């Protein structure tokens, strides 16, 4: 799993927004005159009426009506001599059962966020900077990434989310100039207001917004929507990433005879893992070094090991959901009568790595 994104820069998105499309069955009249609700006339007046409709551009509705879809948004802003760049690329391919979310945030010359996540199958990929990693999920479930992001944004509105909404009502009464290609039912409309030059591209009947561009001296924004030839693929043979399950190495309780660790596997583990692939280890810590002195593979569920010095270690994994997979909500406990500077850690046998490895 990729690291959590830095939320402190979310304010940069506040000045601009976007969304997707309306559906229906509308025809173009042969004489170019439209007198009823079941047709669309390519004119500045009709275009203004279209923009004035509620949800004229609604990404969620659009994503629900297309099996394949990709939305790219690029935003550049300059405030008080500080330059920021935001890029989002969100896609889904229901036929392949895959979704992809990529984001990049640059402040000045510093790349704050640059990652991508492809999921939907038992194998998944994620990228941090230029490095790709392979992950896994024993119970993969394809989900619409546009709905998932919208839900997350509503729960944490101060977070770093795609600028995929745009209020067309606010610009519907501008003086629009149109360039029309009747053979493809494409129109490109342009207008200016007090601050921006605005370009909107639509395709089809009824018109569907597939592009929005706004330009000003300090803020430039480009958004493109694609619903054909959207390709998402997984990379094989790359470095395996350990499960994002890192227990607190400090004991929750210590008395004269027993040291005790206990924890609930939290939302950081959003996947399900075969218990044969994980081990919980008891560690003897000496400065910056740690040595494993006892362990249990999770499929054993509980184990009590006596060491040669007479001390014992007791390990337990409680499968909360009962699906025989390590997942969010499970409980782990470790008890020992051993003394000294002790800790616990998880080793991922699938990834050949400790799970606290930092990417």
Question: What are the key terms here?
Answer:
359 residues, mainly beta, outer membrane lipoprotein receptor (LolB), chain A, 2 domains, twelve-stranded mixed β-sheet, five-stranded antiparallel β-sheet, 41% strand, elongated, disordered N terminus
Write up this protein.
The protein is mainly beta and 359 residues long. It has two domains: 7-226, outer membrane lipoprotein receptor (LolB), chain A, CATH 2.50.20; 242-354. Helix content is 7%, strand content 41%. It contains three helices and 21 strands. The protein has helices spanning 44-51, 59-64, 145-155; strands spanning 68-79, 82-93, 98-107, 110-119, 123-128, 131-136, 177-181, 186-192, 197-203, 208-215, 219-226, 239-240, 253-254, 259-264, 278-286, 289-297, 302-306, 312-318, 331-336, 342-348, 353-354. The strands form three sheets. The chain has a twelve-stranded mixed β-sheet, with no helix packed on it. A five-stranded antiparallel β-sheet has the order 13-14-19-18-17, with no helix packed on it. A four-stranded antiparallel β-sheet has the order 16-15-20-21, with no helix packed on it. A hairpin with a 4-residue loop joins strand 13 (253-254) and strand 14. It starts with 43 loop residues before the first helix and ends in a 5-residue tail after the last strand. Mean pLDDT is 87; it is low at 1-33.
């Amino acid at each position: 799993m990729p690291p959590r994104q830095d939320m402190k820069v979310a304010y940069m998105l506040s000045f601009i927004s976007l969304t997707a499309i309306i559906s229906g069955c509308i025809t173009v009249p042969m004489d170019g005159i439209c007198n009823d609700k079941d047709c669309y006339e390519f004119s500045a007046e009709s275009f203004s009426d279209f923009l004035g409709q509620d949800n004229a551009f609604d990404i969620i509705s659009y994503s629900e009506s297309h099996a394949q879809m990709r939305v790219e948004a690029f935003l550049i802003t300059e405030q008080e001599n500080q330059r920021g760049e935001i890029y989002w690329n969100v896609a889904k391919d229901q036929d392949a059962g895959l979704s992809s979310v990529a984001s990049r945030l640059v402040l000045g010359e510093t790349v704050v966020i640059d990652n991508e996540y492809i999921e939907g199958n038992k194998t998944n990929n994620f990228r941090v900077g230029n490095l790709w990693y392979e992950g896994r999920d024993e119970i993969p479930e394809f989900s619409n990434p546009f709905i998932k992001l919208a839900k997350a944004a509503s729960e944490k509105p101060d977070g770093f989310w795609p600028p995929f909404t745009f209020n067309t009502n606010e610009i519907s009464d501008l003086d629009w100039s149109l360039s029309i290609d009747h053979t493809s039912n494409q129109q490109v409309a342009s207008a200016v207001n007090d601050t921006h030059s605005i370009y909107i591209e639509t395709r089809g009947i009824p018109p569907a917004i597939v592009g929005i561009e706004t330009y000003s001296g300090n803020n430039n924004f480009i958004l493109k929507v694609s619903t054909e030839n959207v390709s998402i693929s997984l990379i094989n043979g790359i470095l395996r990433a350990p499960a994002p399950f890192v227990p607190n190495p400090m004991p929750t309780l210590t008395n004269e005879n027993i040291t005790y660790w206990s924890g609930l596997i939290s939302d950081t583990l959003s996947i399900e893992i075969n218990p044969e692939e994980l081990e919980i280890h008891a560690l003897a810590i000496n400065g910056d070094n740690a040595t494993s002195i006892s362990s249990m593979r999770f499929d054993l569920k509980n184990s009590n090991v006596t060491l040669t010095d007479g001390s014992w270690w007791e390990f337990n994994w409680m499968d909360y959901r009962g699906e025989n997979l390590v997942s969010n909500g499970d409980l782990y406990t470790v008890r020992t009568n051993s003394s000294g500077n002790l800790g616990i850690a998880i080793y991922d046998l699938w990834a050949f790595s400790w799970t606290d490895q930092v990417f």
